[in-house]
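To: structure subgroup
Subject: Chain for Friday's discussion

All,

I'm putting the inputs and outputs inline so they're searchable in the archive.
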Amino acid sequence: MTELHRFSRTELLIGSEGLEKLRKSTVAVFGLGGVGGYAAEALCRAGVGRLVLVDFDDVCLTNINRQIHAMSDTVGRSKALLMAERMRKINPEAEIVPCKDFYSAENSGYLLSDRYDYVLDAIDNITSKLHLIGSCRERGLPIVSSMGAAAKLDPTKIRVADIADTHKCRMARIVRKLLKRQGVERGVQVVFSTEERMEDVSTDIRCRDGCDCPRKEAAEYACRHRKVTLGSVSFIPAIFGFTMAGVAVNDLISRD
């Protein structure tokens, strides 16, 4: 009788060879919010042996409705460090590397210096997202990128496609247009939703009810400086993240 272990059920599905491929893989997740946090957790629970977690942000009170690391007692703490703590408890044998950094052109060389087998892009900032996609293409790094998960409610409209085949997603339209200016029209795999985006809701957000607006070192990201706050729900970002993890895992186990 085979000895049971934490990944026994996964092994029944993908076999010992598939599980070993995941154990030997290094995957980086850029952005650990509502999408990236769930993606990272799914990768860890699937058995990926080395995970690099990149996010500059701290948990805010308003993250609690949709982000896996956000709870009343984690407000103000680093998302990258929280996810690292959580994932080491899930799989103590995995190597978890947290990076409390904001991905940009200036630090891209450092953050992409590792030998990644896959990259997951869950960054909200368009400039950073475009640079990460472009850098991964230049380096030959497989990447799957998340488009807009906010202002959506229908989980059945979530799709995986090439960026060239996206539609009805405002973020995808912007990314598609800007990539085209760089000479890239297709060849970027993305997760997006075909649901019509709900109307933007402008709100007067104040730091209250225990929210310490932890982005102190980057005041431009503070709640009070946002012109528009998009509504979001618990399950849509999570499904985006799980889908991204699924894309990566299926690709990794299918390699020779």
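Points worth raising on Friday:
DSSP finds seven helices and seven strands in the chain.
The mean pLDDT is 92.

D.
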